[in-house]
Amino acid sequence: MVGQTRSKLKEAAPEPARSSRCAQPRRRRRATGAGEPEMEEPPAEAEKPQPPLPVGGGGNLPGGSRDYSPRRPRNLNPQNCMQMEVVAKTLLVGRFQFLSCLLEQLRDKVQQLRRRQVGSRTSVGIGEAPGPPIHLVTLFENDRHFSHLSSLEREMTFRTEMVIIAFWYRIFVGIMNLFGLETKTCWNVTRVEPLNEVQSCEGLGDPACFYVAVIFILNGIMMGLFFIHGAYLSGTQLGGLITVLCYFFNHGEATRVMWTPPLRESFSYPFLVLQMCILTLILRTSNNNRRHFIALCLSNVAFMLPWQFAQFILFTQIASLFPMYVVGYIEPNKFQKIIYMNMVSVLLCFVLMFGNPMYLSSYYSSSLLMTLVIILKRNKIQRLGVSELNFWLIQGCAWLCGTIILKFLTSKILGVSDHIRLSDLIAARILRYTDFDTLIYTCAPEFDFMEKATPLRYTKTLLLPVVMMITYFIFKKTYRDILCVLSLIFHTLQLLAFTVLAILIMRLKLFLTPHMCVMASLICSRRLFGWLFCRVCFENVIFGILAVMSIQGCTNLHNQWSIIGEFNNLPQEELIQWIKYNTRPDAVFAGAMPTMASVKLSTLHPIVNHPHYEDADLRARTKIVYSTYSRKSAKEVRDKLLELHVNYYVLEEAWCVVRTKPGCSMLEIWDVEDPSNTANPPLCSILLKDARPYFTTVFQNSMYRVLKVN
């Protein structure tokens, strides 16, 4: 249902609300069906375009976010881009000025949202949600110019991993239609020549906007959970404030959601934050409240369902809790209930994912079973009459060896030994083992080792020094007061596990950086630093640390806000339009996984491979599809594609030569996998010159070639 036009909204509003959207000189919009194009009103005083600054103090973004090519200039609305020099100055002058400034902006956004509500008809876009999502929306809009993209262009931005929330969307649209409420506003966007005019819709009634809104709202709620977690862990609300500010100051190291919202971990991680809040509450309280354990189970399920690697993260959590149980930090009865809830969550995920055996054959599920066995047999082990140290070692060795053996046994029994997991990638990284499947992952920048510059960036915002000092005092206090620091030990062990994972796989900084921010809240803990706060003013110390953090932190934020760009992929748009109008609806396509995801989403044509690469069957099909970039013969590749019933193959010329690092071009990967053909010429080069007789080129542009499989 199409909502009111912009001109009507302005007439109906009691006050003309200033648009939070930056001025857009590249595209013009007019209401759908209007006669003449209506230019958007520019801001009264637009700043001169500034060149983009490097993000996060230089270097690559976490998880392989791409470097930014020079952007076409776009004027910024001063309302959206806070002058960070002023922020740092106000923070140094007055303690609460910085927080007050943030709250003032939040209040303005809320008032702006209310002014845009017209009678019973409401037009809500993803940029109008108040609270922490504003920061993410601003970065995403600045980077993609998302508000002015057509529906096709928005679909093309979702190139990799999907989580399906169509059910929520259909319920929302159905309810809105039932009550006659408008859910989106559509415009005709005039693009620069030679691009044609396209329609662009905004509001939660637009599928792409709804999709992105759900992600940003989840991550906004996550910021509230960070505050609660930090405040509860440290015992003061200042601890929650430090956690949130540290997260923003190190935002480029903590998440990729503002650049690539569709990633599965973007849905999953907020539920891990909730789960760790609940687990901290359980560890700290003496009474075992049933509701807490039920909430722990449900948060586990919500964390595991969207993301294929979530189980390994929960395995590190069990690995952090088990030593605490062994040495007596956790009561056996409480720990047993925690294990039970984790086992129930695994079974629920197994059922909800239609019997996916990976949930039953992971290190996580194996560790749960071994932990339960050790708990139940604890008394029998004690009767052996061994010393306390040997008692600990027996349990630890039994848990470690039993988990590994049980994992391999269940994998063989359930027939899922060919499925790839995060543990397989870590093992390949440590043992230097390479094959086709591991190289497809580890050659991606986000699966590389942590950058050497990352610890330096942590140090510039004082995050690393503060966390290291807190870790030292936690271990020091452990020897004197075990019960006092019970939950602190768990978070410290979890921090060590996340550190190892992030060093081995850069993408897993997603877990390390936020956890460091939570640990930083303990700088306010009187349990750890009561001896210091008795001698100096507590507030002065905390706000002094915040002031120093803000110097580099505000620079990091300013660098992120300075990134200006616009999504534009004309070659892929031409490809998708050609597929829509020149092929049968049942024609089967094959090609690179990200491209196939776009083809399926935008054309609904059947495809033989997509980015769900951890599935063994899909990996086997993808390996056949990617053989066009090997040295195999054209006939052999054609025959294999016909066995998959492929009608058209999308060949990308860049994939023939692209090389992210030594040993990581497609040809080099295939030379490792198929050494018998290393003397043959690359098939891709042959197909680019002349695809006949086994293929016929039916479409070609600057990036893609569509080959009909003969």
From TrEMBL:
Name of this chain's protein: Dpy-19 like 2
GO molecular-function term, one example from the UniProt record: glycosyltransferase activity
PANTHER family attached to this UniProt entry: C-MANNOSYLTRANSFERASE DPY19L2-RELATED (PTHR31488:SF6), DPY-19-LIKE 1, LIKE (H. SAPIENS) (PTHR31488)
Organism for this UniProt entry: Canis lupus familiaris (Dog)
One annotated Gene Ontology cellular component of this protein: membrane
Protein family per UniProt: Belongs to the dpy-19 family.
Membrane-spanning residues: 162-181, 210-228, 266-285, 305-326, 338-355, 389-409, 458-475, 482-508
Top-level taxon of origin: Eukaryota
